[in-house]
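Let's practice the habit of predicting before peeking. Look at the sequence and jot down your guess about where helices and strands might fall. Then scroll down.
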Amino acid sequence: MKRLSLSSGLYLLLPGRAEAHVKWFCAYDTSVPPLPIRQVFTPTFVAIALLFSALMFTAYVIDRALNTSTWSQRIDDRLFRSVADTNSIIRVAVGILFLLLWDSGSTILTPELKTTSSLVPWVQIAIAASMLFHSTAKFGAVGIMALYLYAVEEYGAFHMMDYPVFPAIAVYLALTGVESPHLRALQLPVLYAGIAATMMWGAIEKFAYPSWTFPLLAAHQELTVGLGFEQFMYVAAFVEFSLAFFMVTGTALLRLACGALLLLLLSAVPEFGKIDAVGHLLIIAGLITMIIAGHRSIQMPAALSRAGALTQAGILTSSYLATIVAAFALYYASQFMAGR
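Done guessing? Here is the structure:
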């Protein structure tokens, strides 16, 4: 257990190579029931959950201390506040993605979502073209939502719950250029929530369907950093979930969480190639945007921000554990409803 704890901690603090989205590279069947919950909540799961809860509590205490320091605020002012507009990052990424999808001619939104429709490529090239101008981005938002709903029709709602990043990007683009400052203020929180939800849902999938990834790990055993397949899947899922949760609850260290996830995604590209790069392009662009924007776009509830450091860390860590339980409940309930 000592070796497992040390490896898990290092894996969180110094992320190395990560596996790609399993549906892009391995056989899967979402109609098959997930692993029974009693087989997920094993002693190994509980031990790793406790370890990551301790790491999250410590991270929140450090985060609070750094957020109240004047030098942290000066660094933020000097490095990031001069970047006034991050919309161009998202627009460029969306433009490149849909230009590549149009060129392939057979993919809806992500590598496993195939289509023979002759209309889809025209929608994709129209989305790419709409990104050329700030004022036309909202038309691209409509196109993205149309393709997302088409994918729901073709592959089912449960499958498409893997990708809340697409509706989030669509809302982000739809709010580009709106006159109301209150509506514009929702852009970044929606983006943060969409990316975090995508990463957390993918983490729960690692718990629910670990067997999908085992063939990938067998072919790339260096990914496991010396852990057994089951241990690695638990640690990888907790790393992904923990960093994603911290993205929407952290303050001074929020950029560090985004940067760690960015490294995890980029580290998979040399191993898995352009399919992985294209599939994660919007998340990569979103994380870069979040690193620039920082926590300024998400306001912590006033009562929580006034609490002491240990109380705040305790509440946030408890919320982290409650979110894991809620995510499991939603995932298993959604799969059950989809299989009926």
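How did you do? The radius of gyration is 20 Å.
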